Amino acid sequence: MRSLYMLIVLAAVFLLLSACNTNDSSKSETKGNGPDSEKTAQNDQHSTSENGEADKSEQGKDQHSDKSHGDADKQTSKGKKDAEDKDAERSDMTQKQVLQAIKDQLDTNLDKRLPASLPLEKGKHLSAATKSDADSYRVIFFASDKPIPIDNKALNDKEQATEIARLQVKKWHNEQEANKQIGYEDYGKNGGKQVDLGHHIKGYQDAGAGSLWTSWNEGRWALVTHARTTNPETGEKLAKQAVNDLESRSLPVPQQNGMVRLDAAGTSNQILWQQQAVVYSLDHVEDPINALDIATSFN
């Protein structure tokens, strides 16, 4: 009986010890989970905060990128507008303004003399290619459908620009050498068949090698027209037209002489005149009367 009682006591003690160990384990787990869990939660919050800052940073970058693109678009738009404004400004330039711009482009010690106007078809624009040095300058005049800046490479494209006249000015060593370039002649002394050119002007005709020349003098100028013997009346007709045209306008006053060659059979029109040691040469003008118009407009 006593032995049984002892067994019961021992069993109760064992059960009590087991229950205590279970409680301690539960507390240990609760204690272990508490701080670590809080740290984990804090880490999660920090991570969330960092992600939020990253999102804000990306959003800021996107906004900055959008602003940069916006600024670039504005700059491009402004550049296009400036170009359009310049094109509009060039298209609105008068011949007088273009000719002044051509003068400004020349770098020479000579007096810069250009025609006051050039014959252009309606809707055409004037431009030029220039070349100059201390003792000479050259201006090639062009007509185009759209405005082309002076000395622009587009002038070399025949589909965009057409040459309408060429002016070359050169200073020679002295007046005698300059005068030799003119080729002046007193046709009254040479003789030939006389023709009445109107306005009391007497002309002289001479034929040879399939060509007919009608020549005359006005002041210090010598003038001649060229025609084919197969169509001789065209030369005399052009001579009379030139004489009549010069009744209402004047060629530059040469020092000493000037020479006009007008071609009724082709496009070899040339006008030269001398100002002391400087020689002016105008050519590459298809129409002979246009050549006279350009020469009489010089200032």
What does this structure look like?
The termini are far apart. The protein folds into three domains: 38-92; 95-165, no CATH class; 178-295, no CATH class. Helices cover 44% and strands 26% of the residues. It is α+β, with helices and mostly antiparallel strands and 299 residues long.
Fold blueprint:
Layout: H1 2-91, H2 95-105, E1 125-133, E2 136-144, E3 161-171, H3 175-180, H4 187-190, E4 193-198, E5 201-208, E6 211-218, E7 221-228, H5 233-245, E8 258-263, E9 270-275, E10 278-283, H6 288-295
Parallel strand pairs: 7-8
Antiparallel strand pairs: 1-2, 2-3, 3-10, 4-5, 5-6, 6-7, 8-9, 9-10
Q: Roughly what fraction of the amino acids lie in strands? A: 25-35%
- What is the arithmetic mean of pLDDT? 81
Oligomer: single chain
Task: Work out the radius of gyration.
Answer: 49 Å
Shape: globular
| Helix count from the secondary structure assignment | 6
How many domains, in number, for the residues?
A: 3
Q: How do the helices and strands follow one another from N- to C-terminus?
A: HHEEEHHEEEEHEEEH
Task: Summarize, please.
The chain has 299 residues and is of the alpha+beta class. The chain has a ten-stranded mixed sheet with strand order 1-2-3-10-9-8-7-6-5-4.
Keywords:
44% helix; alpha+beta; globular; 26% strand; 10 strands; ten-stranded mixed sheet; 299 residues
